[in-house]
Amino acid sequence: MLSRRDFLKLVVKGAVLGNFSQLITPPLAKAVAAGEVHKLPVVMIETGTCTGDSISLDNIWTPTFSDILTNILDWRYDWIMNQVQGQEAYGILQETYEKMPHDYILIVQGSMIQRDNGHYNHVGYENGKFITGIELVRRIGLKAKYVVAIGSCATYGGPVSGYPNPTQSTGVQNILPERRVINVSGCPAHPDWIMGTLLHLALYGEPELEKFGRPKLFYGETVHNRCPRRRFYDQGIFATAIGQKECLFRVGCKGPVTYSDCPIRRWNDRFNWPIGCNTPCIGCTEPGYPDLMSPFTSHFPDIPFPGGTKVNTDSIGLGVLGLTSVAITGHVVTSLYKGRIQKNLLKTSAKTNHRPALKKAQAFHKYWLKKTNKI
Ligand code: SF4
Ligand code: F3S
After folding, report:
1. Where, by residue number, does the polypeptide cross the bilayer (predicted)?
2. Which ligand is nearest to the Cα of residue 254, counting in written order?
3. Which ligand 2 atom sits closest to the C-alpha of 282?
4. In this structure, is residue 266 part of a structural domain?
């Protein structure tokens, strides 16, 4: 059986080589065959979603997704992937939470639609009554061994909760405060992030989480820290338009405040990633996305340093080098978590229609900070 240490090594090796699933499958299949691993029962509920995370998950090419479903996991209910549909499929879901309490993983994909008691989002039908996403997620979530939210919408509300949020959508944690929700964020979440988290749960239990409930093994570092264009940033060489090869900070890149391992893992079997395509990171893994990260092509406002000194981010491009850039980056990160950037954004956007959305993002950050009690 693979040790946790070896598993963590494969997570990184698989990112660099682009074949995490391929590396992880043989030892796991062997362990499953030898009865060393309990095949993990998994049910997935889709709520307010574009189903992008299912499509992302299906991008595991080697081995195929079906190998994982049949050999390593007990993937019981997922209405996109199920061969049976309707009541027959729904019966499997009911059987799982009634007969396997505290033994299954609930995955939620999509935001929690709250308006009008959730009746814009029906996900089931029982005894002549429609069941809402919120109702089903609460019912199944309270009996699950683990609750995993995947994608930007399920984790923090995402685009579905974007200003003016007519459906009053929010993330799973907000409607399931009794449980600690594991957040695998991203728009969509990378297939390795989803599968790696599920495998960690199956083999070693809950992975170490950071303050916003994300597994540190995938969200432990900023995009900026590992970005291949970092040398441009450090030398103050900035692209002036999207599509150019230099650092994309001044055309809106949110890499300095975005936590994910995209630069080393990349997407579509390691084919490419946003910055590799000469477009800015838009911060899709962060709480408050997309409102807090909008406009996507504008850089952060001037950053106030303690003591009242103001540093204009444009001045970086005029030759502020090395250490100053690092200091600014560190400050941007600290500011985001302490709410300073949100305050500045609120000030600078007072006359724009982003204000309510940013207020919401600010309130959300406060909620998380209080919940995690870390700052
Ligand atoms: Fe890379 Fe964006 Fe950081 Fe520039 S600002 S180094 S493009 S992550
Ligand atoms: Fe999202 Fe940025 Fe990665 S936009 S996909 S976190 S590079």
Report:
1. none
2. 1
3. 4
4. yes
Counts of helices then strands in the chain (DSSP H, E): 18, 11
* Residue 345 within a domain: no
Per the structure, the complete domain to which residue 234 belongs is given by 223-338
> Would 355 be classed as within a structural domain?
no
Residue 262 CB–ligand 2 contact under 6 Å: yes
- Asked if 213 and 245 sit in the same domain, the reply is no
pTM attached to this predicted model: 0.82
Task: Please indicate, yes or no, if residue 364 is contained in any of the structural domains.
Answer: no
Residue 293 CB less than 6 A away from ligand 2: no
- For the domain that residue 17 is a member of, what is the CATH number? 3.40.50.700
pLDDT by position in tens, the chain (length 375) = 788 898 888 888 888 777 787 788 778 777 777 887 778 899 999 999 999 999 998 887 666 677 777 777 889 999 888 888 888 999 999 999 999 999 999 999 999 999 999 999 999 999 999 999 999 999 999 999 999 999 999 999 999 999 999 999 999 999 999 999 999 999 999 999 998 899 899 888 999 999 999 999 999 999 999 999 999 999 989 999 999 999 999 999 999 999 999 999 999 878 899 999 999 999 999 999 999 998 899 886 544 444 444 444 444 433 333 333 444 445 455 545 444 444 544 444 444 344 454 565 556 556 555 654 443
Gap between the Cα atoms of 244 and 56, Å rounded: 27
Local structure of residue 279 (DSSP, 8 states): -
Q: CA geometry: angle at 26 spanning 20 and 31, to 5°?
A: 120
Residues 215 and 107 in one domain: yes
> What spacing in Å lies between the alpha carbon of 224 and ligand 1's midpoint?
5
Do 237 and 265 share a domain, yes or no? yes
Q: Is 160 in the pocket of ligand 1 (CB under 6 A)?
A: no
The neighbour count for residue 322, using CB atoms within 10 Å, is 10
> Which ligand is closest to the CA of 52, given by its number?
2
Q: Is 277 annotated as a binding residue?
A: no
- Judged by phi (left if over 0) then psi (alpha if -120 to 50, else beta), residue 312 lies in beta
Whether 214 and 250 share a structural domain: no
